[in-house]
Design brief:
By secondary structure, the chain is mostly beta strands. The protein is built from no helices and 11 strands. Strands 2, 4, 5, 6, 9, 10 and 11 form a 7-stranded mixed sheet that branches. The protein is elongated. The termini are far apart.
Length: 119
């Protein structure tokens, strides 16, 4: 069993910053890509940022230059540093990881953390 737990969400004013963390635990041999998604009510979940095991990153256009994804492989942890936050960044943010759990390669999701940006 593998568990992903996000933390770091909260309420912040526009222009502020938050740092999200995602810790993976359990039977983990290795983790390939780790991603951050976000979802607002009534809309599809959207990919915000991706980081490979080797550290290559990719971002959704609206967050480029404001968000930074990083990871600590020995700690099985991914981070999302969010700066210059805007009200439209308000969403539930989810962590996603492709995990080799000794039996197979599976995709796991965290439970989500709420980010609210006030204007």
């Amino acid at each position: 069993q593998v568990l992903l737990v996000e933390s770091g969400g909260g309420l912040v004013q526009a222009g502020g910053s938050l740092r999200l963390s995602c810790v993976a635990s359990g039977r983990i041999l290795s983790i390939n890509d780790m991603d951050w998604y976000r979802q607002v009510p009534g809309k599809q979940r959207e990919l915000v940022a991706t980081i490979t095991r080797g550290g290559s990153t990719n971002y959704e256009d609206s967050v480029k230059g404001r968000f930074t994804i990083s990871r600590d492989n020995p700690k099985n942890t991914a981070y999302l540093q969010m700066n210059s936050l805007k009200p439209e960044d308000t969403a539930v943010y989810y962590c996603n990881a492709d995990v080799n759990n000794y039996l197979s390669l599976r995709t796991y999701w965290g439970q989500g953390t709420q980010v609210t940006v006030s204007s």
